[in-house]
Amino acid sequence: MKIDILTLFPEMFEGIFSQSIIKRAILDKKVEINLHNFRDYSKDPHHKVDDTPYGGGSGMVLTCQPIFDCVEALKEDDSLVILMTPDGIPYKQQMAYDLSKKKHLIIICGHYEGFDERIRSLCDLEISIGDYVLTGGELASMVLTDSIVRLIPGVIETSSHQNDSFNNNLLDYPTYTKPRNFRGMEVPSVLVNGDHKKIEEYRKEESIKRTKERRPDLLEK
Ligand code: 6GU
Questions:
Q1: Which ligand 1 atom minimizes the distance to the CA of 91?
Q2: Which residues line ligand 1 at a C-beta cut-off of 6 Å?
Q3: Which CATH architecture does the domain made up of 2-157 adopt?
Q4: Atom of ligand 1 nearest to the CA of 141
Q5: pLDDT in tens, 39-61
Q6: 163-219: CATH architecture
Q7: Residue-range domain boundaries for the chain
Q8: pTM strictly above 0.85
Q9: Which residues are part of the catalytic machinery?
Q10: How do beta strands 114-115 and 61-62 pair?
């Protein structure tokens, strides 16, 4: 998979993509991630990327030209163009699964007060990562990228995301490791008795119980 990210702040991504699982995935060539500063595509003599809004109002608005030119330079036949915006579709695990099967994603990070409405016409999909406002789409695009890359086959063991929270609309079951007793808190005995059928039943029950308590909205689906 190839992911091209359009941002005015490529340095913000350095830490995220040079550590842990994403770093490994890049080194193993499971994913190629490229950062593009769309300021480089600006035809303005001062490399301007924003301007004042028509009709008045506060703040600056990202202009069409640099983003259109940058996307058009990167686009291939099988590219999916995604716009990160708080008014996009709420992001869910199922979308991460669907996107992890694509060959090429182009992700546009908005910034400042907003972007020219006509930029939406470039995009196949608009995504929000939750009902709160970030200063820009950068963090949101990192969340998106991280959640997608971990699902690419071979990046992590399939068994470790088969039980992820939100699969089948259930939260994850509780897990424990050594020691069996920590400050009086005991590991449930079913987990140390070696009866795998019982363990499976216990985990399923706990998963349902936890979802009922914490996220009853998921069970209604
Ligand atoms: Cl995608 N962008 C911004 N700026 N804020 C957000 C968001 C995206 N998703 C939630 N809040």
A1: 9
A2: 84-86, 88, 110, 127-130, 132-134, 136-137, 140
A3: 3-Layer(aba) Sandwich (3.40)
A4: 1
A5: 999 999 999 999 999 999 999 99
A6: Orthogonal Bundle (1.10)
A7: 2-157, 163-219
A8: yes
A9: 86, 113, 150, 164
A10: parallel
